[in-house]
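User: Structure please.
Assistant: Input sequence and predicted structure:
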Amino acid sequence: MDNKVKLNVLGLSYSQAQTGAYALILSDEKDEKRIPVVIGAAEAQSIAIIMEKMVTPRPLTHDLFVTFCEGFAVEVIEVNIYRLDEGIFYSEIMCKKDTDTLKMDARTSDAVAIALRSNCPIYTTLEIIEKAGISITDKELSASKPGEDTPTKSADVPPSTGAKEFSTKEEQGPFSGYTITQLKALMEEAISNEDYERASLLRDEITKRE
């Protein structure tokens, strides 16, 4: 994978877009951008347990995977988030045994849960960071402060991953009634509240219009 950038796992937040889902928040190595990844509740629990250094009475599936690798002298070298397509992140786990290496396709949530247990690095590409990253030092945001035309409530945001339902209403988009100034104000508010999932959707809408 070219132009690899190391990622850090910052934490988890409840998804404002999908009921019962969570947002896994990743950041680039310089801590300049946030990358929200929507994941399921079970995977979020597995990640939270290892981040909080909790001990479960019985091994979880990700624990079993790492124990299996250790038992057969297989080293988990790294995790790569190598593709972003229609809001879905694609990842692979790279393992090594002796001189042989193996790449395994995996859901990003599973790959991160395993990486944390294996103490191996997580990488992505510059392209994905530019495409999905939310800047927390974006000077452009300071130029657009909430004004008289800023709505008092944020718009409802549809899921950022998964299948899309196509209809006339969806094609218009949830932000069709907002100006770019309003959208930028909403994005600034979302970043201020560390709601990077919502901020990424607002950023995508702004980019589309500009």
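The chain has two domains: 4-132, 136-209.
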